[in-house]
Design brief:
Blueprint (H helix, E strand, L loop, with lengths): L1 E5 L2 H5 L2 H15 L4 E5 L11 E4 L5 E4 L4 H13 L11 H8 L17 H6 L4 H9 L2 H11 L11 H10 L6 E6 L8 H8 L1 H15 L3 E7 L3 H16 L4 E4 L4 E10 L8 H8 L23 E5 H13 L1 H5 L9 E6 L7 E6 L4 H8 L13
Parallel strand pairs: 1-2, 5-6, 5-9, 6-8
Antiparallel strand pairs: 1-3, 3-4, 7-8, 10-11
Length: 380
């Protein structure tokens, strides 16, 4: 039996650390052999703090809004007497928040411990980069991304493969890879939640992209206002290096690739790719005129590709499941899924991932539960 407490920013902000501490205290007092673990944002932010109890047979029961004063009752009922404490369990209505989604980017968020690489490996983590390095040529990787139809999730919707191919084709002794995690839009927390809940997916994707374009160095530019994301990225990068999944000669393939973090100082303009690169170089973050485009002359005047967190998080799944699988979701011109941060004057705040082409009405009314007090939707 295992107990998992959601500890993304949303959970911690509502008291999840105190809940976890009380769980450990109560479990120790009862002399139970039950581990208390952590995970990232489950997605139902409006129900935090969330506690998931995994029975020995693998069945999971979710308890919501678990403040420390509710812990003793849950421990006594479920962990001691093996009876679900219905009073605090998630309702069928709230379960629909996740049931109506299609999670690709968020596949591991709320399910694995983001600070434990072994849990990522247990859900096929780093199998995509292994497949790429052992069975695919760089141009085959780019072709797979092309067939998938993946477009940049940062807002521009630019075809990912085209950018990668341009950087691969550009002459240059050094090439670089950048992940834009400088999520500055008000109310947005999609990238933050991925980095807090599944940082290895981004690391693995960057290694795949590095192999595809011929880069050996990557940078993740993350806003300093995301301290939990920064901490978990540092842990994940360190673990990946220890496991030989970053650094020299990955999977004995002769491919070298490493990643460093750079913290943004809160400049909104650094969400623009050329300003971001200028900032990484140690200068004031100001946009550069284009052309030349970054794929020809980017970071340190070398060919560079830049994608955001959500774009990268799709890559391992495309490689493992195939381009056709990814292309089967979404619309004719926009394939796959999209993550939305749903917040403001709405009943169910949280993270929503749905196929491209899903209507705003579906997100706001069916998943988001509509506007409080039955009021009409006016604007988003």
């Amino acid at each position: 039996m295992k107990v998992v407490v959601g500890q993304g920013s949303c959970g911690i902000a509502t008291g999840a650390k105190k809940t976890a501490a009380e769980l450990e205290k109560q479990i120790a007092a009862k002399g139970l052999d039950v581990k208390v673990d952590i995970t990232g944002c489950v997605g139902t932010c409006y129900l935090e703090p969330i506690v998931d109890v995994y029975d020995d047979n693998g069945e999971m029961t979710r308890y919501v809004k678990v403040q420390p004063d509710k812990v003793a009752e849950i421990v006594e009922s479920h962990l001691v007497n093996h009876k679900v404490c219905q009073e605090y369990a998630i309702t069928p209505e709230d379960e629909q928040f996740l049931d109506k989604q299609q999670r690709v980017v968020l596949r591991n968020c709320g399910k694995i411990n983001p600070e434990n690489i072994d849990e990522y490996l247990a859900v096929d983590g780093y199998k995509a980069i292994e497949k790429v390095l052992k069975t695919m040529k760089p141009e085959e990787v780019i072709e797979e991304i092309k067939i998938s139809g993946l477009r940049g999730r940062g807002g521009a919707g630019f075809p990912t493969w085209f950018k990668w191919n341009a950087a691969k084709s550009s002459p240059g002794k050094e090439k670089y890879l950048v992940c834009n995690a400088d999520e500055g839009d008000p109310g947005a927390f999609m990238d933050r939640s991925v980095l807090e809940g599944d940082p290895h997916s981004v690391i693995e994707a960057m290694a795949i992209a590095g192999y595809a374009i011929g880069a050996s160095q990557g940078y993740i530019y993350v806003r300093a206002e995301y301290p939990i994301a920064v901490e978990r990225l540092n842990i994940a990068i360190k673990q990946a290096r220890e496991y030989g999944l970053l650094g020299k000669n990955i999977f004995d393939s002769g491919f070298d690739f490493d990643i460093d973090l750079r913290l943004g100082a809160g400049a909104f303009v650094c969400g623009e790719e050329t300003a971001l690169m200028t900032s990484i170089e140690g200068n004031r973050g100001e946009p550069r005129p284009r052309p030349p485009f970054p794929a020809v002359k980017g970071l340190f005047a070398s060919p560079t590709i830049l994608n955001n967190v959500e774009t990268y998080a799709n890559i391992p799944q495309i490689i493992l499941n195939g381009a056709e699988w990814f292309a089967s979701m979404g619309t004719e011109k926009s394939k796959g899924t999209k993550v939305f941060a749903v917040n403001g004057k709405i009943n169910n705040t949280g993270l929503v991932e749905v196929p491209m082409g899903t209507t705003l009405r579906t997100i706001i009314e069916d998943i988001g539960g509509g506007i409080p007090n039955g009021k009409k939707f006016k604007a988003a």
